[in-house]
Amino acid sequence: MVTNLAANEEQSECEASSAAGLHASVRGEGEPVVLLHGLFGMGSNLGSLARALAPSFEVHQLDLPNHGRSPWQAHSSLDDLADSIAGYIKSEDLGPVTLVGHSLGGKVAMQLALTQPEAVSALVVADIAPVIYPSSHDAVFSALAAVELAKPRSRAEAGDIMGKLLKEPALIPFLSLSLRRNEEGVYVWRFNVRALRENYSAFREPPGGAPCNRPALFVYGLNSSYVDEAGKLAALGLFPAAQFAGIADTGHWLHAEKPVEFNAAVLGFLQHGGIAQRENQQ
User: Is 252 among the catalytic positions?
Assistant: First the structure.
């Protein structure tokens, strides 16, 4: 069951587009931690985690390309997305960072660590594994297209349209976060629906590259089907130092369904397994 997907979406006052073009919200001081949201999301989706980490770390919430307030691009493979994050890290002179990514953001974090390990000190991957996944978003794409065609003049109207096509009602407020009103008074999507649809098959592919020995935590919902034993084995093959943590009574949207437990797992890893290990190696 998906719950509370629209909760805790507060944005920091420190928001801007970086030199690399990506929209970012930055808060806190300390070692840099970069948060990467999932498909159809935006950086603010991980706002609860950002607030939990900010007392100890400098937290960067990014909108991935084709999402939120970041630029659009026609071609968008995992490598392309990883390059965009690497460009942000370089443009902000962050040095090696800890990456925390949920779903698609987790795949992007893995891809960056596997292909440009010098940019990554540690990573947390939330409810995704380095495997190929079956297509499962046809209904979502149909709902997005229906909203575009109808040109609604209120969020409620857009929600009613999506409600006729989506079996999970809680997806509606989540997707509605990415609606904006244009100059003509029509509600349109912030994300690039066409590019996301055309690149969807690339997002389903597993990340690839040379095995990476960076500290890694794979945290997942015990009610989710996204991380099984085969997924764990695949993760260990690419990240030999990987640790695993399952959160009970939650599914794929663990950061929204169980924010206290999820935040504690991430913070504990960063303080005792991730950043701490990197500092000990220096």
Answer: yes
